[in-house]
Amino acid sequence: MQEWANQLCENRQFGSKMTDSKYFTTTKKGEIFELKAELNSDKKEKKKEAVKKVIASMTVGKDVSALFPDVVNCMQTDNLELKKLVYLYLMNYAKSQPDMAIMAVNTFVKDCEDLNPLIRALAVRTMGCIRVDKITEYLCEPLRKCLKDEDPYVRKTAAVCVAKLHDINAQLVEDQGFLDTLKDLISDSNPMVVANAVAALSEIAESHPNSNLLDLNPQTINKLLTALNECTEWGQIFILDCLANYSPRDDRESQSICERVTPRLSHANSAVVLSAVKVLMKFMEMLPKDLDYYGTLLKKLAPPLVTLLSAEPELQYVALRNINLIVQRRPEILKHEMKVFFVKYNDPIYVKLEKLDIMIRLASQANIAQVLAELKEYATEVDVDFVRKAVRAIGRCAIKVEQSAERCVSTLLDLIQTKVNYVVQEAIVVIKDIFRKYPNKYESVIATLCEHLESLDEPEARAAMIWIVGEYAERIDNADELLESFLEGFHDESTQVQLQLLTAIVKLFLKKPTETQELVQQVLSLATQDSDNPDLRDRGYIYWRLLSTDPVAAKEVVLAEKPLISEETDLIEPTLLEELICHIGTLASVYHKPPSAFVEGSRGVQHKRLTSSAGSGESVESPDTGSAAVSEAPPAVIPSQGDLLGDLLNLDLTPPTSTGPPPAAAPGMQLGAMDLLGGGLDSLMGDESEPLGGDIGGSPAMGAGFGAPPAAMPASFNAPISGGLDDLFDLGGGGMTMGTYIPPKTVWLPAMKAKGLEISGTFVRRSGVIQMEMTLNNKAMSVMSDFAIQFNRNSFGLAPAGPLQILTPISPNQSIEAALPLSTVGPVMKMEPLNNLQVAVKNNIDVFYFSCQYPISMLFLEDGKMERQVFLATWKDIPNENESQFQIKDCHLNSDAASNKLQGSNIFTIAKRTVEGQDMLYQSMKLTNGIWVLAELRVQAGNPNYTISLKCRAPEVSQCVFQNYETVLKN
Amino acid sequence: MIHSLFLINSSGDIFLEKHWKSVVSRSVCDYFFEAQERATEPENVPPVIPTPHHYLISVLRHRIYFVAVIQSEVPPLFVIEFLHRVVDTFQDYFGVCTEAAIKDNVVVVYELLEEMLDNGFPLATESNILKELIKPPTILRTMVNTITGSTNVGEQLPTGQLSVVPWRRTGVKYTNNEAYFDVVEEIDAIIDKSGSTITAEIQGVIDACVKMTGMPDLTLSFMNPRLLDDVSFHPCVRFKRWEAERILSFIPPDGNFRLLSYHVSSQNLVAIPVYVKHNISFREGSSQGRFDLTLGPKQTMGKSVEAVLVSSQLPRGVLTANLNPSQGTYTFDPVTKMLTWDVGKINPQKLPSLKGTMSLQAGASKPDENPTINIQLKIQQMAISGLKVNRLDMYGEKYKPFKGIKYMTKAGKFQVRT
User: Fold this and answer.
1) Rounded CA separation A619/B159 (Å)
2) Chain B residues with CB inside 8 Å of A595's CB?
3) Which positions ≥6 away from A496 have C-beta within 8 Å?
């Protein structure tokens, strides 16, 4: 304010009355009265000056609302500037003076009829900004006219006005049919109108995720692509973002869209470029990789991304966050562009850190020498945070590129020689990780590390050093002295260091029992008797008992061989990555979180997924969207706020046999389960990864949760599940009814787990409607009421089609039948097994969770009978690697009976062929999400074993379908 | 879309706010101020800041923070690009984009902002169109307006806004028809201790100033268009023609605009115009350090290197620098530790040098970091990539315009590590 005042004085001194600052000259209380008089002046010029003064006061946040009637009186004027100024004022204050604002309505309505399109547009635009119900009512008619105005300038302004109105009163917009008019504008002849209509519809759609407002079909896409070339840069962004939501029918369509979008990569506006990149990255998935065009496209993507990095730092930052995603998804695009990510010393820190991250992701054997030289350079910079991260990066390189490990270690040793305190500490932390990745290779450096023991003052570095001393106690002559020196200040250390010290000394004792008995007793008593920390006490007691009961076992446990840590645990989980690729250029891509997790305005955003060339459906992951890790990794519930069910399911402690593997978001539980399966008593050691693992998570559970699991794991993991499923169906005898097989009800939620509520149930498909039939049994002592049900996202988007209809409370020992109709339009997430469904049921007592599996035949549509010709063509079209074969044993039906039985479950026989006494049935079925499954069932007379071959573009469903065949045929 | 805009000066005052939807309380800026406090340098404030109900996206230009408030999912680049456009427009209108200029013209600023966005959607951002809607303030016009009572708001719908060439206004008339093109290239490079190039790239732009009557249709061709494999065009350039023939064909906006920007990254094409011989060292246990710097021309294709400015952030422990320049003047700021040497022109016969000693603060240990040397320079009449315009032709109008082309090379982020 001081500066400002000076400014004003200056202006006065020089008599400069020409600038707007003169409007600020009066600050005294009488100002309002003065202005009032001026506003009511007869002279036009004086009026205008007065309104300007009012606006100037408004801009700096002064309250001039008291002048409302006087300003509105100036509205009826031929002077456009005055009109605009009054409108500006109205927009700001109408809300606080709704009754007065009504005075303005007549002028607005009149202006909407003006001959000058500029005035028509201005009026409708301003009216939309006035968030007062009474005004909004009057807006509808003028708006309707303006949407059909002959002048495109007015139409494009009106399009935006619909979005404004929707924000104020959504119901009104729908009732008045403005949404349809807006949709029509997508076909307008003027590209600017098209762009604004798309923008308005996109904004409206954001608050109605399922409204299907932007119904994209090849015709509209064509119109959008035409408008894309001709509209303004901002319009191009809206159109590109809208295009990204479209799923092309086939690879040819996606190629043609890509071809028409590619020129946008040369646009000067970086937001246009990034939106174009998004469209290309998404549609590229559909293109066959052997296509020439695919390679061309990959090459075209690199230069614009590199160019973004020469822009202003803020743009660079957003670009880098997105490049980080692109590099994880398609490293080949930028693999030769390492150098553009080299850090300039005057880059802002947020740019530096991002560049560093991408450098590590791009590091490979080919460029590691350059990268290391750079990192070493960075480690001598001034900025402490950056230096630390650079040192860590060297460690990550060592773990990622095995051939470079030796170089990295020597670089780290060089850095330790600089004796810069934080560099040394950081280096020790990463060397510990290198030891875990390459055991027994670089231990020669331990001596150097030990020299710096005293200078370590950060808990993480101290803990790392203690771990190294404990782990290699047998090679360090004075290990006991070193550890003893730490023990002196035991109580002043942080928990991390205390835990580490405890473990290290126990290790030392097991390695050199004779000399260290005293030390171990000392640390055990410190941990168990003098500490308030339950973790530390518990660990102390465990060691103590272990050592006192069975030292041999203790040795096996404590000194067990540790699993190697895997590289790149910081990679984004593949399903999340896919979703983020669909959101390139948005806030989600900057934060690397799914959009539903953080943006307030977008409740229930639909999850977007990449669709790849081989997949015909959207919901099921196609075979080549990812590595083996994708299909084998347990399903990951991405923790997202607002998804209560998802969050709470993580707490569900049902054993994995009945629920499938627990969500990855519950690492603690994962850890336990894995340990049991792995057979190694690693849980004690597992703790170590907690303080130490840091960013390079150490335990196998981490690996399984986020990356590729060890090959043996999934098998042993899945076996009990499918076994369980079979058992479940074996239970039922004689459950067969007219044609359709209905599995008998099984107990889904035992009373034990649900405070007395027992739920058993089954799934039925009756004339095209899927129903979940449940028996709810109250085994508690009190009445249960207020039932509600909710599903977690699942593979086929099953969701309750209505609320759970339990109208009367259930009294103790009463049971009640309930049928819940299901729809298949809910949110989709791949589950393991595919037909797993996680359910939450709420009653007046609590919320309970269970999971059940539905027979996949529930999802077979009644129109699943394919034309013969189509069948043949499709069968040939699906690549052979998508075919899977199964045996069905002990089935005593002939082929016709089998065919009839299957038909009851919407599995249709299209043709039958008999070759050498073997009946071959060709069958088809169609899933609710549009996936076709084709089958060939071979039945040999007299042989109870059937062979079935399944072909599907989404081969993941084959296993489920096969199980379904088995259950249907055997019941 | 964009909800609100706050302008904040370097002392942390919000001096202007504009809302395009409902009013967002200025207290939302507290989150920005928090982030600003955490950042050590003004440039280090993160561009995207989440708050419980909004997102703040900011750019820092001319020591003013332009903070946009958004509520729903909006592409951040869209917002940043828009903010840049706001800055450019202010600069275009007021000559400078400073707090004083904005306050002096607050009503015009308000009118402009209202015209640029509607409900958060960009409305008119092309300077050609804005100038038709709202005339830039000039002393003369203000005088005339004051006397005659006319306004500086256009009464008619800007003609260009809905035509196929929305960037150009119609009815343009000049007595002298002229077209000037400036090819300006900046070299970004990192040179390591030993003088070898770690990375080098060229950011080039062609800025144009076209003042021609009517609707001229121009074509610009290059001697060596293959240099340009990574380009961003002004919307006026016909992309298909470029793809097919490597010729720039366009109907230009009226006045100043950036025709294209390009990027040359393959290193063999990037010539490094100067070399630096340096010896900046400190001895263990001594409070003195040596500073020795010599500059010389390298690949300049016979042109002279001018306006050379060397700057370097010396280590924190340095108290004073006692140096002797062979030419030009140097300054050392003992607070920021920034050493600047204004060299001027490099004479290849007598290479400029800066030699002397630095003294460390009492008790300071030998600095760990090695200072980086930043170099600025200019070379006239040459584009370092070798890019050359072949010819400029005009179609669609009868007159003969005056044409001019200028080349210039500058150092962008040109850094030498020591």
Assistant:
1) 49
2) 73
3) A459, A460, A463, A691
| Same domain for A442 and A468 | no
Say if residue B43 is in the same domain as residue B142: yes
pLDDT of residue A969: 81
Q: Would you call B230 and A306 a contact, using CB atoms and an 8 Å cutoff? A: yes
**CA nearest B145 in A: which residue?**
A45
The answer to whether residue B370 neighbours chain A at the CB level (below 8 Å) is yes
- Say if residue B201 is in the same domain as residue B61: no
Interface of A with B in 369-408 (CB under 8 A): 370, 373-374, 377, 380-382
Domain finish residue from B126, B148, B170: B148
Amino acid at A220: T
Chain B 266-305, residues with CB within 8 Å of chain A CB atoms: none
The model carries a pTM of 0.68
Q: What pairing do the DSSP bridges indicate for beta strands B305-313 and B338-344?
A: antiparallel
Between A497 and A945, the more confident residue is: A497
Domain that holds residue B333: 274-380
**Mutation test of the interface with chain A: which of B1, B86, B88, B106, choosing the one with the most A Cβ atoms within 10 A?**
B106
For B64, residues 6+ apart whose C-beta sits below 8 A from its C-beta are B7, B8, B9, B10, B97, B98, B99, B102
- Spatial neighbors of A877 by CB under 8 A, at least 6 apart, are none
The mean pLDDT value for A647-674 works out to 38
Q: Which token pair is A185?
A: 């504008």
| Lowest-pLDDT choice from A500-509, A912-921, B64-73 | A912-921
The answer to whether residues A840 and A880 belong to one domain is no
The pLDDT, as a whole number, for residue A21 is: 53
* A422–B contact, CB cutoff 8 A: no
In a domain, A544, yes or no: yes
Residue A777 lies in domain: 746-854
CATH number at residue A842: 2.60.40.1150
What does the block give as tokens for A505?
């000394």
- Is residue B154 included in any domain, yes or no? no
Q: How many C-beta atoms surround the C-beta of residue A366 within 10 A?
A: 12
What mean pLDDT comes out for the span A482-506?
A: 87
Instruction: Give the residue from A378, A367, A342, A312 showing the smallest Cα distance to B199.
Output: A342
Task: Find the DSSP H helices in A330-383.
Answer: 349-362, 368-378
What total number of domains does chain B contain? Answer: 3
For residue A373, list chain B residues with Cβ-Cβ distance below 8 A: 192
Asked if B47 and A313 come within 8 Å (Cβ–Cβ), the reply is yes
C-alpha A792/C-alpha A798 separation (Å) is 9
Candidates B357, B372, B193, B373; CA nearest to B282 is: B357
| Alpha-carbon span B165 to B215, nearest angstrom | 10
Give the DSSP H/E element, type plus range, for residue A769.
strand A769-778
**Subunit contact B77:A48, Cβ cutoff 8 A:** no
B224: its two tokens: 């060596």
* CA atoms of A22 and A814, how far apart (whole Å): 82
Contacts with B, A 600-659, CB within 8 Å: 600-602, 605
> CB-CB: which of B23, B71, B316 is closest to A601?
B71
Q: List C-alpha distances in Å: B272 to A819, B55, B409.
A: 78, 42, 11
- In this predicted structure, the answer to whether residue A542 has a pLDDT above a threshold of 80 is yes
Query: Is B157 in contact with A151 (Cβ distance < 8 A)?
Result: yes
Q: Does B71 touch chain A (CB under 8 A)?
A: yes
Concatenating the DSSP letter of every residue in B186-231 gives: EEEEEE-TTS-EEEEEEEEEEEEEEE-SS--EEEEEES-GGG-SSE
What confidence category does residue B142 fall into, taking pLDDT thresholds of 50, 70 and 90? low
Q: Detail the DSSP E strand segments found in B283-401.
A: 288-297, 305-313, 318-325, 329-333, 338-344, 353-360, 372-380, 389-395
Output the pLDDT for position A612: 61
A361 close to A324: Cβ distance less than 8 angstroms: yes
